[in-house]
## 1
Amino acid sequence: MGVFYHPDDTGRSQPNLIMLDAYKEKLEFPDLKRAAYDKYMEYEPDQMIVEKKASGAPLIFELRAMGIPVTEFTPSRGQDKIARANAVTDLFASGSIWHHPPSGHTKLSRSALHSRQESMMTSLTPHLRHY
């Protein structure tokens, strides 16, 4: 996730959020660690947010040991992906959430929750709670 400024309908510059990349693949731990490190080096973010489940816990430990700033995320009990998405739906309604696919910047909307972008949205919604 990154923050950038974009003019609103009145021309005033407003903060917007952009997801720079999404990565979904089943990897063995050494490959997962290498992929996370490579993404960190590619984008040089201020922090990485990693879900603290399964391989996430040791990944957080390893990345921190390498000096990479990591924030751990643990989903709330009793909240499924729809409940987590509903918690940040106003951000999508405002039009201030963007995705940077290889073809260029694209605004994400609430309708993406029910489209082919659903898995990306599932990954994105926990991170939005940090903003």
Note: The first strand starts at residue 2 and ends at 7.
## 2
Amino acid sequence: MYDYDKLIRILDERNILLSVMGKDIGISSRTIAKIRKGEKLSLKTLDKIGAYLGVDSDKLFRVISPNPLLQSLRDEKNNKISGGIYNELQIRMTYNSNHIEGSKLSEDQTRLIYETKTIFTGEALQIDDIIETVHHFRAIDYCIDKAEEPLTQDIIKELHFILKHDTNDSSLPRFAVGDYKKRANMVGGKKTSSPQNVERDIGKLLDFYNNKTEITIEDIIEFHAEFEIIHPFQDGNGRVGRLIVFKECLKNNIVPFIIEDDKKSFYYRGLSNWKTERGYLIDTCLDGQDTIVKLMHTLGYAY
């Protein structure tokens, strides 16, 4: 649902009737009815209204999600509210996901970067750890913005680009930032999809997943495991995979899960044994969901 209260408020302040605005800029009565019903308008129409009022079109409305967590994340993000669930998920998800992959930044250092955009430390730090921390914050925002859109290869590649652009990896020969791997790789000593088969394999996985009539948390965990088995990128597969999980949980009104760094051995065991024993990974992810539920309760959010 779309809330056009901001648009109506601007019109009221200027003593302009909605119907008069419609006539002035040549939009149909059907479009006016969509505004009154809270239905989606085209970008072209929104831009036309914005130009008429001298206001950025994205300031004229907000999307109301039936998922209360997603709505809270969007409201806190858009209004730059600190101390809430958006703030905490940014820090905790970024710290844990990056630390699993070898980042040396502590949770306190991650929090400092997020909340003050500065870092003070007496130790030497890898520049990429700092860059990828900032990029992960932006990738979470991207997931929140795109939450309700169907999962596609373009979204998956964009997440990789957001994470890896401007890093040392991006300057390496044949390292494809925002695109699938060019060289074969292995994970945990096991073979992954060959570069020439990645697009096909991801396409098949997306078709299987997106054709489900109702998505459960087990479906999202299954997608995650199969995605990591394909291992489509040269590097960054784990972080992209966990961001996809976050997006898809928000899309399907499921509380997301977070894999904490001290649980990574259980997480890796679950991924490694997925084909023979799915319970390992499912139990680890459900434990990570409990972590988010507890955080929501602590902060006073409904579950």
Note: The radius of gyration is 22 Å.
## 3
Amino acid sequence: MAQAFRYRVDINNLDARDLAAISAEEIMRMSMPEFLQFQNRLVSVRHRTRYDLAVWEKVIITQEMAKAIFRKGVGQEDNYASSDIRFTKTRAHTNMMRNGEFDQGSLAIITDISAKMSIYPSLPTTQDKGLITNCKATFPAYIDPALILGVWKEQTEVAYKEGDSEIFKGLVSEFPQNDGISGFVGANGGGVAQNVLMAQANLANPRVLHGGEDFSVDVRPLAAFDATAATGINQQVVQKIELKTIELVTVKV
């Protein structure tokens, strides 16, 4: 029997308890505006942000160093995008479980994808596996985060895939972050701003994933990017991808 989502038939009557079922296929046939109106009817809804990230070492990043993420979960080994060196993923890297998949028996609706990328104008003393382990900082004049972020976002591609099928793709700049801290600080000063949550739905249609279903997000540099200590930005490059999801209790129909 196929899994289905449950929803309230009449949301205008608080006393109404009638429920109906709608399939994953019917959800995916909705336009995003249709779904955003419909989602308020869903029951047993849990809104979540699922995330994973790719890490490049302090090397000259090339087009051959593309990285598929949402392939490994917490406690599993993954490798840098720039080498075969492996490390164990923690919740600082991802909140997906085994093999980067949703749990067996679950269903998840994906409504939005955002690509967060951070460059530190004040170099951290120690950076390891994409994480800062010592926040002590210096302020080199040659680091211009506005320029660095602009170059990376306009020269790096993000592609969402289900199995071997590429569902959509675009530049990092086309999937802006919708919450968190942003800002620019350089040798001559600057500022930091805290963004409020700005709900986005940048997909044409919602996507629905079954537990255990194979999916991934590819991060693909389209040009060389110098992250070395000798001639580049002297930082590891970390590209985080967030999926806004609605995860539901399901019934059999």
Note: DSSP finds three helices and 19 strands in the chain.
